[in-house]
Write a structure and sequence with these properties.
This protein has 1 helix and 12 strands. With about 210 residues, the chain is mainly beta. The protein has 2 domains: about 80 residues, Copper binding periplasmic protein CusF (OB fold (Dihydrolipoamide Acetyltransferase, E2P)); about 90 residues, no CATH class. Strands 1, 2, 3, 4, 5, 6, 7, 8, 9, 10, 11 and 12 form a 12-stranded mixed beta sheet that branches. A hairpin with a 2-residue loop joins strand 8 and strand 9. Keywords: Signal. This is DUF5666 domain-containing protein. It comes from Bradyrhizobium neotropicale.
Length: about 210
């Protein structure tokens, strides 16, 4: 009886090990990137080659309905109470949130991505899209209280923090030398396509 149990257990153990190995391989598979930050090297028809900030070469198919936005620099003082903003933040030494960059959405984009979530710009960074409820001016920057539907955050924006806004763009801006942030998805054939691109104006590197 003992021999029979051992005989039956061996196939079951083998199946379990295969299943665990498959699960582990899936878990370890690198996630598909959702955006690329970099400089356009060339555009050929509906395909553009981008050199990412990390040095990788990325080939992107440009969707026929691509939405292009320009990114322009504005002043910190342009952030007003009531502005709907996106703030990339990292934890500060005092436990607060320090802004890496802030982008002010035009009124037509109010509510875009409202909330707070992990972000991939820097280690431990998060992105919070919210409405400015309070703005306190200090000696070296502003402290913003931003509120979104599930909570609120206090964000410190130093005087040297990049502050930008979106302006209408055009597909013609997707040309060699342009600095971009492109949102992308993987197609069934393994290639990548973008339907939303933010382009820095006047040589600006989009900070988000």
């Amino acid at each position: 009886m003992t021999v029979q149990r051992v005989t039956l257990a061996r196939p079951l153990l083998a199946v379990a090990m295969v299943a665990f190995s498959t699960f582990y391989a899936i878990a370890q598979k690198a996630p598909v990137p959702t955006r690329v930050r970099g400089t356009i090297e060339s555009v050929n028809g509906d395909v553009m080659d981008v050199k990412s900030r990390s040095g990788e070469d990325v080939k992107l198919r440009i969707a026929s309905d691509v939405n292009v936005s320009g990114i322009t620099k504005i002043a910190l003082s342009d952030i007003k109470v009531g502005s709907f903003v996106g703030a990339t933040t990292v934890p500060g030494p005092d436990g607060g949130q320090n802004a890496v960059e802030v982008h002010v959405f035009p009124e037509s984009m109010r509510g875009t991505g409202e909330g707070s979530r992990p972000y991939d710009l820097k280690p431990n960074s998060s992105m919070t899209n919210a409405t400015v409820a309070e703005s306190v001016v200090g000696n070296d920057g502003h402290t913003l209280l931003v509120k979104y539907k599930d909570g609120e955050k206090k964000v410190f924006v130093a005087d040297n923090t990049p502050v930008v806004t979106f302006v209408p763009g055009d597909k013609a801006e997707l040309k060699a030398g342009a600095k971009i942030v492109a949102f992308m998805k993987q197609l069934p054939d393994g290639s990548f396509e973008t339907n939303r691109v933010s382009v820095g104006r006047d040589g600006l590197t989009p900070p988000m």
